RNA sequence: GGCCCGUUGGUCAAGCGGUUAAGACGCGACCCUCUCAAGGUCGAAUCAUGGGUUCGAUUCCCGUACGGGUCACCA
């Protein structure tokens, strides 16, 4: 009894020695950062917690979607907290990039760090390096309770212990008898701190590896794991907390109800539960999301920052994937019944969908680029020509300046180009899924690009002779010569095609595809071949939308000029 | 290696003890067609494996294999 009182007193003495300037208490913080009572029952408070490493992972976007959905569905709060406790890895400008990228996808938070210089909310500061005082109050609390202690071990000593443990096949780590500083007397600790010896702070775990704990993951259900028995570091030598400790303090005092994080955190959840209990805090609900994988040879692995360009959200922005399409894709891998719902609610978007935690898949899914492309294609197909132009303008201004200059020269013309087979309701063109490809798809509409391509790659029309030996250079020449004479810009589409057929027939082409297919040897080629000659002469492309519309857009002079030019090169 | 999570066609997946095992992407064929893209019709293709439990297992339990994650003063 006497001893306990004495020990208790010494813990306070030690706490005071370590934190002489901390006079706030955990109870003070409880009052300063009260529970969010204004929220209605069942409101979910979530947070996205990026580290400012200059890189936003695609997985973070996926999680941002979960946060946004959960919070908005329950009239809760989704906030952003910057986790910058590892100052070595910090990259300037990260916060700006992160918030802008979230915004790009319409997944901006409601609270916390909303922009580089903008924080909103009563639970701040929302940047961990600015919350040092809070962690110190909490750490002091643990020292006072005898639940944290100074550790004087050097990295070299730690390394030796680890090697010994590995050699002897003992569970590695700092715990039990291997936790040297855990087992020194409180008097010695006090003495060594007084002497100015360097130390860090460790948690004193009372857990045992032999016991099991279980908790309910809101997406995966009950999970059973060994209790934590590691005396993890809570305050590092730079005075900042480790992730484990910051998570516990912040999510408690920011009143987070649901912690949505990647599966890689699952193994350390017992540590967090242990810490929550030690602090006397109620633990939040955990949701561990599956990792996004990528195919690597015959196996799959986690998206890697170094190897996979798709691991960075910025990749999708730079390539000009429409955010709507990316979001659609994320939803399909996020909630298993989304695609079903979507097919019944084509006109609605993902914000109208009721996201359910128990419908979350727990297996890591492969990033399926063809599927993403398809979804993006569908989204772009919904846009009008004007909208496509606006988007291409906005994208190219940022990522393809030359192209931007070219298309903004004559906006009326560009509007018609991008409205091609798009504004005429019935057959909507679906051949673009990202803005990056637009320049190549429409290159023949813009003289500068068209000319450059001819110089670089040459005239592809001669390739026709290789495909079909009846189509000789002579035939191509005759076809163009003939067609130049009869082309009439005033023709309606039907008249135009009749004229095409007429010309083709005179030269020996078959104008009826069925007849041609039945007896191809009777003709030098079909109307399709003749069309190809015209198409290539005008666009230098094998495949394009309807040539009539293209010719109309280009105008007679240019059409004739291009055909003559091609003629001179055969 | 210890611990944890996971495993239905090539990919994403529905299913929650009895189904001809949905659907989407991709792939193939055909149709439409001036070429593509699109659209239409059709098609090939899946319950990792061995034991239980049960009248009956894709579904429940255990083992095995395989894949992934994690074991820091990084998050």
What does this structure look like?
The structure is a single chain. β3 (111-115) and β4 form a beta hairpin. The chain has 570 residues and is α/β, with parallel strands linked by helices. The chain has 25 helices and 16 strands. The protein has 4 domains: 28-129, HUPs (Rossmann fold, 3-Layer(aba) Sandwich); 132-289, HUPs (Rossmann fold, 3-Layer(aba) Sandwich); 385-441, no CATH class; 455-569, Arc Repressor Mutant, subunit A. It is 47% helix and 11% strand. The mean pLDDT is 91. α3 crosses α11 and α14 (385-399) crosses α16 (411-418). Strands 1-2-3-4 form a 4-stranded mixed β-sheet. The termini are far apart. The chain binds one RNA strand of 75 nucleotides through α6, β8, α8, β13 and α11.
In brief:
The chain is an alpha/beta fold and 570 residues long. A hairpin with a 2-residue loop joins strand 12 (292-296) and strand 13. The protein is built from 25 helices and 16 strands.
């Amino acid at each position: 009894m006497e001893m306990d009182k004495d020990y208790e007193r010494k813990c306070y003495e030690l706490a005071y020695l370590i934190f002489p300037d901390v006079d706030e208490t955990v109870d003070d913080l409880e009052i300063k950062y009260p529970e969010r009572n204004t929220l209605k029952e069942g409101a979910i408070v979530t947070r996205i917690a990026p580290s400012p490493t200059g890189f936003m992972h695609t997985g973070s976007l996926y999680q941002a979607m979960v946060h946004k959905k959960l919070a908005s569905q329950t009239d809760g709060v989704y906030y952003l907290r910057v986790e910058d406790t590892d100052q070595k890895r910090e990259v300037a400008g990260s916060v700006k990039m992160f918030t802008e990228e979230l915004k790009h996808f319409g997944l901006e938070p409601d609270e916390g760090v909303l922009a580089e210089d903008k924080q909103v909310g009563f639970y701040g500061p929302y940047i961990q390096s600015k919350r040092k005082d809070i962690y110190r109050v909490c750490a002091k609390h643990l020292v006072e309770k005898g639940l944290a202690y100074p550790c004087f071990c050097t990295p070299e000593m730690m390394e030796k212990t680890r090697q010994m443990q590995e050699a002897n096949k003992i569970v590695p780590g700092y715990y039990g008898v291997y936790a040297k500083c855990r087992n020194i007397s409180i008097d010695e600790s006090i003495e060594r701190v007084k002497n100015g010896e360097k130390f860090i702070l460790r948690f004193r775990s009372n857990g045992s590896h032999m016991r099991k704990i279980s908790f309910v993951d809101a997406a995966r259900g009950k999970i059973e794991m060994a209790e934590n028995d590691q005396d993890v570091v809570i305050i590092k030598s730079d005075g900042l907390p480790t992730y484990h400790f910051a998570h516990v303090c912040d999510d408690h005092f920011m009143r987070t109800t649901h912690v949505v994080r990647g599966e890689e955190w699952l193994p350390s959840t017992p540590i967090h539960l242990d810490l929550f209990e030690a602090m006397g805090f109620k633990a939040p609900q955990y949701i561990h999301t599956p990792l996004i994988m990528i195919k690597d040879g015959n196996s799959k692995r986690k998206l890697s920052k170094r190897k996979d360009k798709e691991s960075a959200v910025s990749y999708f922005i730079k390539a000009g994937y429409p955010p709507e399409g990316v979001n659609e894709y994320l939803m399909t891998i996020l909630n298993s019944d989304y695609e079903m719902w979507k097919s019944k609610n084509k006109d609605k978007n993902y914000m109208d969908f009721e996201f359910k935690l128990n419908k979350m898949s727990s297996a890591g899914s492969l990033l399926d680029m063809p599927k993403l492309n398809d979804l993006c294609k569908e989204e772009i197909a919904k846009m009008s020509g004007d909208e496509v132009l606006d988007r291409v303008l906005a994208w190219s201004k940022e990522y393809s300046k030359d192209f931007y200059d070219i298309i903004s020269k004559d906006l009326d013309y560009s509007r018609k180009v991008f409205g091609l087979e798009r504004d005429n309701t019935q057959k909507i063109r679906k051949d673009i899924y990202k803005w990056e490809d637009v320049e190549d798809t429409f290159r023949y509409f813009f003289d500068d690009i068209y000319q450059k391509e001819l110089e670089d790659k040459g005239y592809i029309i001669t390739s026709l002779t290789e495909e079909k030996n009846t189509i000789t250079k002579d035939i191509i020449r005759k076809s163009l010569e003939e067609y130049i004479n009869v082309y009439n810009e005033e023709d309606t589409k039907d008249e135009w095609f009749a004229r095409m057929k007429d010309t083709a027939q005179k030269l020996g082409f078959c104008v009826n595809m069925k007849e041609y297919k039945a007896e191809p040897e009777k003709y030098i080629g079909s109307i399709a071949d003749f069309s190809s000659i015209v198409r290539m002469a005008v666009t230098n492309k094998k495949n394009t939308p309807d040539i009539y519309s293209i010719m109309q857009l280009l105008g007679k002079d240019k059409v004739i000029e291009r055909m003559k030019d091609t003629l001179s090169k055969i």
